[in-house]
Design goal:
Helix content: 40-55%
Distance between the termini: 5 Å
């Protein structure tokens, strides 16, 4: 009998929010599902945030994760982009809190180091390693691969924080 923990990883973004779900049983990782929630700029900020919340809430209700791993904001030089990312992250944290999920946040470099072994790895390297670690996933979208990477990082970084989903 082994414990299985379901983790939802998120790569927040206002235009594209990547999500990925894995099951963890001991040291074994298994792909469950992944996707990207897309919004249109023409809809306006409030409508876009509502769409993100609605779609993410459906993902959470459908897959019933025990924990969520959210990539922290990476702020370069564009304060407007950082603010939009902050809004999307707030929606993700709100949806997770409403569902009663354990919330963990990880820096992008930490996620890359956990998955690739190098904190400054490129998106292609992350996607390659996610496909290696989860061969059944067939992920092709970078946002979804980044979300799966966040879930993998949580599986490797926080075993003491894991919550039991089911026993098989």
């Amino acid at each position: 009998m082994s414990l299985t923990i379901r983790i939802l990883g998120l790569d927040p973004g206002l235009a594209h929010m990547g999500w990925g779900i894995i099951d963890v049983s001991g040291s074994r990782l298994a792909h469950v599902a992944h996707g990207v929630i897309a919004t249109k700029a023409a809809s306006g900020l409030g409508v876009r945030l509502m769409e993100l919340h609605r779609e993410l809430s459906v993902v959470i209700a459908t897959h019933a994760p025990a924990a969520i791993a959210v990539e922290q904001a990476f702020v370069a030089r564009d304060p407007q982009a950082a603010l939009k990312l902050g809004h999307a992250r707030a929606v993700a944290l709100l949806a997770a809190a409403q569902a009663g999920l354990e919330i963990a946040e990880y820096a992008p470099n930490h996620i890359k180091k956990c998955v690739v072994g190098a904190g400054h790895a490129g998106k292609e390297q992350v996607q390659f390693m996610v496909r290696r670690l989860l061969p059944a996933c067939g992920v092709t979208q970078a946002d979804a691969a980044d979300a799966l990477a966040a879930a993998i990082a949580h599986a490797h970084s926080a075993p003491q924080r894991r919550v039991v989903v089911s026993t098989w």
